[in-house]
Amino acid sequence: MNTVLAGLKRINLISGKGGVGRTTLAASIARAAANEGRKTLLIEIEDDSGWDSALARSFGLKHFKIEPESLAPNLYGLCLSAATGQERFLTSFLKLSSLSQMVLGNQGIRWFLEGAPAFREMGYFYHLLLQMRADYECIILDLPATGHFLGLARLPHLLLRMIPFGPIAERMKEGQSHLYDPQKAAVFIVTLPQELPVSEAIELGSVVSKESLPLGGFILNRAPFNPFTEAEEQVLQGLSQKSKTRKLMVEIERIRRFKEARARLGEELSKRGGGGLWIAPEVSSPEEEIHFGYRILQS
Q1: In what order do the strands lie in the sheet with 11-15?
Q2: Which residues are 277's β-sheet partners?
Q3: Measured between alpha carbons, how far is residue 178 from residues 139, 146, 181, 185 in Å?
Q4: Helix 167-179 and helix 119-132: axis angle, to 10°?
Q5: What are the domain boundaries of the chain?
Q6: Is the dihedral angle over the CA atoms 203, 274, 223, 231 positive or is it negative?
Q7: What secondary structure letter does DSSP report for 223?
Q8: Over the stretch 49-83, which tens digit does the pLDDT of each residue have?
Q9: What is the pTM assigned to this prediction?
Q10: 3 backbone dihedrals φ, ψ, rounded to 5°
């Protein structure tokens, strides 16, 4: 079976609800892509909470910088900043950095702009667009479990309806040419093998399709190790019920739930007519996480 690396596009958005292991997977996939020799950029979106970044922590840092910084051979990290994107967007057509800084530095103007539709998302989008213009072979974007994903996904359609011409429209169309092209981009939705996370992943997949973003597929994380055949599972199921051995019952139940989750996600992909179902095993140590990207297999 192929690893998830075979399914990567140039631009890869890793999404999913909180607590499903999305950030760990994004870091592991980026490491694996870089180890294959691809020039890889790993991106996070700035967090206003003030806490250290979980993604940056996996590389021994508190936060990524707003300019790409080297993390390892072929691997770079970056933090998308709304303010940075806004300033660089204004500079791109005001032509003077000092003028754009003066505009954004005026509190009255900033209050007005912050109240404008999607101004913050536009900053993130333009900062991302600048990275897409660079020569990276693989871009991995760890999307937060917030509304940023929907904001970024809907931004080009929203602004092009309001402003169909001019510099803003040109940049939105350029961004669309990257993010909405299934040959260039893909969204991977991470989930766990439990009923609620799987339902949430399927719902998020519907949103992705509705927004015309290419769905790369689902990554079913923390898959339990299953050394048993179907016949052996039936025997063990009977033994666990008779002996009431809690540990055995728990393991058999976890395997059953995993199989149900895999079947539901596979059925959903069949309905959509595309996308892969990737299986990520449980890991128990930081050393395993480093090589995790090679162990995420297509089901």
Answers
A1: 69-72, 75-80, 40-45, 138-142, 11-15, 185-191, 215-223, 276-281, 297-298
A2: 218
A3: 12, 22, 6, 7
A4: 60
A5: 4-224+274-298
A6: positive
A7: E
A8: 667 899 999 999 999 999 999 999 999 999 999 88
A9: 0.85
A10: -85, 170
pLDDT category at 250 given cuts 50, 70, 90 is: low
The class (CATH top level) of 4-224+274-298 is alpha beta
H-assigned helices in the chain: 22-35, 54-57, 82-94, 97-105, 107-114, 119-132, 148-162, 167-179, 195-210, 230-243, 246-272, 286-290
Q: Which amino acid is located at 46 in the chain?
A: E
Structure tokens at 88: 């660089």
CB burial readout 86-101, b (16+ within 10 A) else e: bbbbbbeebeeeeebe
- What residue type is assigned to position 47 of the chain? D
- Contact by Cβ (8 Å): 64, 77: yes
What single letter denotes the amino acid at residue 290?
A: I
Nearest to 49 by CA among 144, 151, 152: 144
Q: Give the phi and the psi of residue 193 in degrees, each rounded to 5.
A: -80, 55
